[in-house]
Amino acid sequence: MLALRSSLLRSSLSSSLPHFITKPFTTKQPEWQRLAEEEAIAATNSKALKQGTMTDTMMSKLTHELQVSLSLLMFELELFASHNDTISNY
C-alpha cells in the first residue's frame, strides 16, 4: 500500500512539476525529526488503544504539539544557519 501511495504521489508530482523538483533535497532525516515522528506515532497508538487516563491523553497531545513546534523551530534554525553560511561565502 505504501508503494502504491508513493508511486501515485510520484506520478502526480511528475505530471505537475518540472522533473528536477520531484526528487527530495535530502534523503536522511535529522534525528530530531525522526524522534518527533516516533513520539507522534506512540501518542496516536496509545490514543487508539485508549490506554491511560484523560490527563495522560491530554499530556501526550501537549507533548506532541510541543515537539512539532520544536521540530519546526529547529528546521527554521537550520535554514537560517545555511543562509548565513551562504552569505558569508560571498
Automatic annotation (TrEMBL):
It comes from the Eukaryota. This is Uncharacterized protein. It comes from Triparma laevis f. longispina.
